[in-house]
Amino acid sequence: MTWFRKAMERLAKGSSALIVKTGRGTTAWLRAGEKFSDFVVRVLFLAVPVGIVWSLLVATTAVMWILVVLWCIAAWRAAQPAQEKSEGKEPDLHPDDLADLLWELAEDRKGVHLAQVAQQLTKEMPGRSWTVKDVRRLVEAAGIPTRHSVRVQGLGVAVGVHRQDIPSSPSPAPVSPSPQGVEPQVNPATATATAPYVRDLGGGATATFTPDPQQPNRTHVTVTKTAEN
């Protein structure tokens, strides 16, 4: 039957998505530890519930059927068609704007919590109360991975985005063009161009500053003085 085949395809697609998402999330959580001891503790933390569930499965088949039903429900929701998901679509936010917001909130720390982003978006978008779940969907739609344990100084550890996963870098401030007819000021000590810069020292003397193309931090200075009449 057509409906049965479509249902099986949706369950298969959702199961595949759940496996990939669970694997990536678990891997990111294990790698989030700063020390090797953190990694060992997290592995043990995962091993305990897995062992408990396995013992229950061996003891009775009722637990297995409960897990199968829960998995099918999760897989069905994971493979939800795009047209159904679009009904609860959040306000559009360009990925570049989202990245700039993440950099702004992260500052010089290791990352930013999703709760911080939700609070900031709620402040910037009156009439819309953002939740961590909303921010997670927004971040994932932009292709930015999240981690279960991101440590932010002063806020502890929570679900967020690590600074290594934020795309590109903070947008540079725009450079104002020089007014027409006014020659821009050049500092010979920090010049990086290859063209020489000449400065009038007065008394018929001039100094020529020539940046070294091989060593950008080095500048050759030549002082010349015209002969007096």
Summarize the structure in words:
It is a single chain. The chain is of the alpha+beta class and 229 residues long. The chain is 47% helix and 16% strand. It is built from 7 helices and 6 strands; from the N terminus they run αααααβααβββββ. A 3-stranded antiparallel β-sheet has the order 1-3-2. A 3-stranded antiparallel β-sheet has the order 4-5-6, with no helix packed on it. The longest helix is centred in the first third of the chain and has 30 residues, at 2-31.
Strand portion:
15-25%
Report Rg: 30 Å
Biggest sheet: strand arrangement: 1-3-2
Cα distance, first to last residue? Answer: 107 Å
**Backbone structural class:** alpha+beta
Number of strands: 6
Shape: elongated
**Helicity level:** 40-55%
Order of helices and strands: HHHHHEHHEEEEE
Strand count, sense and closure of the main sheet?
Answer: 3 strands, antiparallel
On the 0-100 scale, what is the average pLDDT?
A: 76
Low-confidence residue ranges: 83-88, 170-176, 178-184, 188-193
Quaternary state of this entry equals single chain
